[in-house]
Specification:
Layout lengths: L2 E2 L3 E4 L3 H12 L4 E4 L15 E2 L6 H14 L2 H5 L12 E5 L2 H17 L3 E4 L1 H7 L10 E5 L3 E2 L2 H14 L3 E3 L4 E7 L2 E7 L2 E4 L2 E4 L5 H6 L8 E10 L9 E4 L4 E5 L5 E5 L14 H14 L8 E11 L6 E4 L5 E5 L9 H13 L14 H4 L10
Parallel strand pairs: 1-12, 2-3, 2-13, 3-9, 5-15, 13-20
Antiparallel strand pairs: 4-8, 5-7, 6-7, 10-11, 11-12, 14-17, 14-18, 15-16, 16-17, 19-20
Helix pairs in contact: 1-6, 1-9
The protein binds flavin-adenine dinucleotide.
């Protein structure tokens, strides 16, 4: 027996599940979304929420341009209950080695060829624009003034609420135990032992997509990796852009409410979904950022947390139908997935409608791993 999940069951109430639910419900599909905990409980609610068009692969640049275009009017489009805080204070990558600067140059060349207004800056230009940055050893950087910030909780909840207004059923505290398969096609999902049926199931459960796909016999090369981050007390906003330091992976930015978000890429972090934090991160990242932002000395840290990246072997997303008919995945967004919610939702909707996707996303296909056709994103932390 079991219950009807409508036309499409979406698993995961992160930004991608909610954006897909919105796009699909708006297009007339009957959607049921299951979230195991609460909306934005995964990577989405734990992210640094940076928005950028600085990518080094064409597909990501094209999608990133679309994301920024959508973010400009999304507050109105979704009639968001929470302020989305979309702010364009820019995104600056700084390089300390010829190799890093060479890669930034290649990325910016590609971005400019596609219409992204990014630029390469020398140390003098960086100093003259952001006098408060102390960037000893920096040999250059890449900057895009259109990039910025969005509130990750507002974004996720905004999509979910708008999906509900279009008729979607959004169920929280409803963990999916497994995907149901009959013959070679998907039949629905089991939620705490109860069967829900639908002809299409979308797995948008971040790193948890892999075990769910495995329950349907599909192998997804997606692994979790813990990333830590912290937030300071607010200081008078002065529009400090996101600054990403390519020597040690540290990044910081000011949010519109004046707080600073500070994080660092650390390859030694555990490869799990656990969300513990460590005093070593707090000390290390504060030392690293204070060297670059001495004006933050004395500003107090108010909270530290962590969340999982969902990493694929090339740090690129997987958006595709699986070999099980009707089972689709959208996951593997690594450390840059929040900002791809607008394009991710649209792509899923177009794939379900059976129309050509607005950007060619063949590079994101699942079979690339088997084929050995990886396409690493060079602009990743
Ligand atoms: C510290 C940190 C900093 C980041 N910084 C940025 C950034 O600056 N910019 C950016 O664009 N991206 C950033 N990211 C990455 C970004 O957060 C993710 O790529 C994106 O949020 C992934 O969204 P998602 O919806 O695919 O997955 P998630 O947000 O992880 O959502 C998956 C959801 O599925 C639910 N779920 C899991 N299992 C089940 C189940 N069995 N049944 C039902 N539900 C289930 C989870 O509870 C979760 O809510 C960062 C991530 C982290 C951790």
């Amino acid at each position: 027996m079991g219950k009807s999940g409508g036309d499409v069951i979406v698993v995961g109430g992160g930004v991608h599940g909610c954006s897909a639910a919105y796009e699909l419900a708006k297009a007339g599909f009957k959607v049921t979304l299951f979230e195991g905990r609460y909306l934005s409980a995964g990577g989405s609610g734990r992210s640094a929420a940076g928005i950028r068009q600085h990518f080094g692969t064409e597909v990501n640049c094209r999608l990133a341009m679309y994301n920024v275009q959508v973010f400009r009017n999304l507050q109105e489009e979704l009639r968001c209950p929470l302020d989305l805080e979309f702010t364009q204070w820019g995104y600056l990558w700084v390089a300390y080695t010829d190799r890093s600067l060479g890669q930034l140059r290649l990325n910016v060349e590609l971005q400019n060829s596609l219409g992204i207004p990014s630029e390469i800056l020398d140390p003098e230009e960086i100093r003259s624009r952001w006098g408060y940055l102390k960037l000893d050893g920096v040999i250059g950087g890449a900057f895009c003034a259109e990039d910025g910030h969005i509130n990750p909780h507002g974004l996720t909840i905004g999509y979910a609420e708008a999906a509900k207004r279009h008729g979607a059923l959004v169920m929280m505290k409803s963990p999916v135990d497994r995907v149901l398969v009959r013959g070679d096609r998907v039949a629905g999902v089991s939620v705490m032992g109860e069967e829900w049926h639908a002809p299409v199931v979308l797995l948008a459960a971040g790193p948890w997509s892999a075990p769910l796909a495995a329950s349907a016999g599909v192998e997804l090369p997606v692994a979790a990796e813990r990333h830590q981050i912290l937030v300071t007390e607010p200081v008078e906003p002065f529009g400090c852009p996101m600054v990403l330091c390519l020597d040690d992976g540290a990044y910081f930015k000011q949010c519109p409410n004046g707080t600073f978000l500070i994080g660092r890429d650390d390859p030694l972090e555990p490869k799990t979904c656990e969300v513990q934090v460590s005093p070593g991160f707090l000390e290390g990242v504060c030392r690293s950022v204070l060297q670059r932002m001495p004006i933050l000395k004395g500003v107090r840290v108010v909270r530290q947390w962590s969340g999982p990246y969902d990493i694929t072997p090339d740090r690129q997303a997987i958006i595709d139908w699986t070999p099980v008919e009707g089972l689709m995945v959208n996951c593997g967004w690594s450390g840059h997935g929040l900002q791809f919610a607008p394009s991710g939702g649209r792509l899923v909707r177009e794939m379900l409608q059976g129309v050509p996707t607005f950007v060619d996303i063949r590079p994101f296909r699942l079979s690339r791993f088997e084929e050995g056709d990886l396409f690493p994103e060079p602009a990743c932390i």
